[in-house]
Design a protein that fits this description.
Largest sheet: none
Number of domains: 1
Number of strands: 0
Helix content: over 70%
Low-confidence stretches: none
Strand content: under 5%
Radius of gyration: 17 Å
Structural class: mainly alpha
Shape: elongated
Mean pLDDT: 95
Order of helices and strands: HHHH
Length: 140
């Protein structure tokens, strides 16, 4: 049961990486003048899954800590990084929904969305390493 959280988060991170790779084509088209296909609907779906997965995983991580160790916020850099992710998750979701629902040519909002979500991906990768330390300190 305790391993569900890290496995779930790794899967969410892989989905987030795929969403980023899909989004790179939008950047190439809008800013580099390349004629490349952008799989909009798949990008939106993968982005929603990644952001939703990270958010659900954060709640799940708090619940796992409470269930197994009787306390939350005891994993140091792991929970701190998760809480840094929280406002970025909200911003990434809201900007993605705005662009998906109100389709029109844009330049700045997609760049902010991409930079925010790339930062989320970096933090999620950091979570892998801090989570590994949590497993070593508290489980193994």
């Amino acid at each position: 049961m305790l391993y569900f959280h890290p496995v779930f988060q790794v899967l969410a991170t892989l989905v987030g990486l795929y969403a980023l790779l899909l989004g790179i084509n939008r950047f190439r088209f809008n800013h580099l003048g390349k004629r490349v296909p952008f799989m909009w609907k798949r990008h939106v779906l993968m982005g929603r899954l990644a952001i939703g997965g990270w958010t659900i995983g954060m709640v799940g991580g708090l619940m796992m800590a409470r269930m197994f160790w009787g306390a939350t916020l005891i994993t140091g850099p792991h929970w701190q990084t998760a809480f840094w992710m929280l406002p970025l998750l909200a911003f990434g979701y809201v900007t993605g929904e705005v662009m998906n629902r109100l389709k029109k040519p844009r330049t700045i909002l997609p760049l902010l969305h991409a930079a925010n979500n790339a930062a989320l991906l970096v933090l999620a990768i950091r979570q892998f390493f801090t989570g590994w330390q949590v497993l070593k300190d508290f489980v193994f």
